[in-house]
Amino acid sequence: MADITETSEWAALSEHQGELATRNLRELFADDPARAERMTVTAGDLFLDYSKHRATGETIARLVALAEKAGLRDRIDAMFSGARINVSENRAVLHTALRLPASAELVVDGQDVVAEVHAVLERMGEFSDRVRSGEWTGFTGRRITTVVNIGIGGSDLGPAMAYEALRDYADAGIDARFVSNVDPADITGTLAGLDPETTLFIVASKTFGTLETLTNARVARRWLVERLGDEKAVSRHFVAVSTNAERVADFGIDTDNMFGFWDWVGGRYSMDSAIGLSLMVVVGPARFREMLDGFHAVDEHFRTTPFERNMPVLMALLGVWYTDFFGAQTRAVLPYSQRLARFPAYLQQLTMESNGKSVRADGAPVVAQTGEIFWGEPGTNGQHAFYQLLHQGTRLVPADFIGFAEPFEDASAGDGTPGMHDLLVANLLAQTSALAFGKTAEEIASEGTPADVVPHKVMPGNRPTNTILVPKLTPSTLGQLIALYEHIVFVEGTVWGIDSFDQWGVELGKVMANQLTPALTAEEPSGDTPDASTAALVRRYRELRGR
Ligand code: F6P
């Protein structure tokens, strides 16, 4: 595998960066006001304005040339056709098959994966309908009013984020809670106030071997059985989502009440598989399918649109541009939607577990910087917290602003002041404009600002942003947004030459935690600790716990 940083396309971008580094967005817009209209693209219902980037048409052409050099076209075809592109685990990467329509066909290793996907969707739909209608009851015959999803990482963040995003669509009187952390505060806080007779637990774990999930599930089972006084209650109150039927059975959940998926679905790409069962129960199978159709619309856009007009490709390449040519460390994701409060956290796993790699797919060290650090909070809250650094700090923080034209439900004070949603959107637009164009010392001085204060008020501008404008937050547009970022990760990973679908870096800590637990809990202190610092901390912990 060639090192991408050794290519002439990379060198051309380096040189081009030198030219653009001295130019600012005020100049770029003055030279070419039409860029505001031209540097836009649509994918499904998503509209992207990428004009406020430190980039010109030439930049885009050079970035596209880099993507072509990295073999992006072939990689896209390979992923969609089920090739084993997750090389270190020798697996296909087929989350896009989870949202293919039933009429499609995709045969991988002799199996029509579309038929399998839709068979599981059917079972999920039947189960969800039974719970929603009250036909499926708890052990004492009462209908289910709360589902508790027990999972972590990809088996938690996706459904938890989507539940928050789509809770306006919950129409069956069922709410959801999510437990993930092995911190006892999580499960005890979640169970507090719940009625065991009306609670359904969904234990979601791809491997069904994850310490946090199995521990939380055992605690929940004990809580249920103690309160309902009968082991037999478990089968009415626990269902599982997993790829591992044997472990599900070992845990004591009837595999008739298990919903499967496949090793070709990575954990962080699984919220549209059976891992989304809690969401489906809450919003119903029809809404869930609308979400899948949304994913599919952006999959098709990604698969078929020329790179110059391909939204995930453009956003990914601009990510590479800032990461590798401007030295940016992070990317802020700023949804102007309270409902998307968990979206940045969801994206953190999706992007950082995927692209936080320092070897290439062939095992050689990477030379480029990889893995953007994603972070963010909903606007407008973030404006009153960390935006100061975005506007006037010394670091370059490219940011994605996500806004919606229509709210699910607007509100106003009723005194002639604008509706709340218009205020929200006005803030989004104000921020991207201020970040791009800033305010000069002359402009500030001309307002009568004392000379000694002027430098403090200068807004440097030239801070790049994407603005993604969406008609409304719906199941479909949520699916579209998620698919957009999934494909951004893929394109960046392709340019960097890494395997975006394994996550070996999380394994060592898991093994060591298992080894360390006895050192914390054993009656007698043992010398079984990996290093001097950890040994000292273990001693301190034991002392504090009186052990
Ligand atoms: O530890 C990382 C990880 O393996 C994630 O990739 C995954 O989403 C999460 O743990 C949970 O895994 P599982 O669904 O197998 O419980």
TrEMBL record:
PANTHER family: GLUCOSE-6-PHOSPHATE ISOMERASE. It is found in: Cytoplasm. The active site is at E353 (proton donor), H384, K510. SUPFAM superfamilies: SIS domain (SSF53697). This is Glucose-6-phosphate isomerase. Catalyzes the reversible isomerization of glucose-6-phosphate to fructose-6-phosphate. It comes from Actinomadura harenae. One of its GO terms (cellular component) is cytosol. It is an enzyme of class 5 (isomerase). The gene is pgi. GO terms for biological process: gluconeogenesis; glucose 6-phosphate metabolic process; glycolytic process. InterPro entries: G6P_Isomerase, G6P_Isomerase_C, Phosphoglucose_isomerase_CS, SIS_dom_sf, SIS_PGI_1, SIS_PGI_2. NCBIfam families: PRK00179.1. GO terms for molecular function: carbohydrate derivative binding; glucose-6-phosphate isomerase activity; monosaccharide binding. Its EC number is 5.3.1.9. Coiled coil: none annotated. Keywords: Cytoplasm, Gluconeogenesis, Glycolysis, Isomerase. PROSITE patterns: P_GLUCOSE_ISOMERASE_1 (PS00765), P_GLUCOSE_ISOMERASE_2 (PS00174), P_GLUCOSE_ISOMERASE_3 (PS51463). The keyword Cytoplasm applies. Belongs to the GPI family. It catalyses: alpha-D-glucose 6-phosphate = beta-D-fructose 6-phosphate. Pathway: Carbohydrate degradation; glycolysis; D-glyceraldehyde 3-phosphate and glycerone phosphate from D-glucose: step 2/4; Carbohydrate biosynthesis; gluconeogenesis.
